[in-house]
Design brief:
This protein is α+β, with helices and mostly antiparallel strands. It has one helix spanning 13-23, and strands at 2-10, 28-29, 34-38, 43-53. Strand 3 and strand 4 form a beta hairpin. The longest helix is centred in the N-terminal third of the chain and has 11 residues, at 13-23. The termini are close together.
Length: 68
């Protein structure tokens, strides 16, 4: 089974650590990161898709994807 997640958050150190932590758990980057600007808060918001192959499991819509 291939699992997909899209991480989002402010463009800060914490976001980079979240992506790094997931890469070290076997997830891989999928495509380029995306950025947008929140004019209300003045923050740049990042998004990064990640994917992971999980052998021996079947997809279930109730599963927690981050725990795979």
């Amino acid at each position: 089974m291939k699992v997909y997640r899209f991480l989002t958050g402010p463009d800060d150190n914490a976001f980079c650590h979240r992506v790094t932590a997931n890469l070290n758990k076997g997830w891989e980057l999928h495509g380029a990161p995306s950025l947008t600007f929140n004019s209300v808060t003045g923050q740049v918001i990042c998004g990064q898709a990640i994917v992971k192959d999980v052998p021996g499991k079947d997809y279930d819509p109730d599963m927690k994807l981050g725990e795979q």
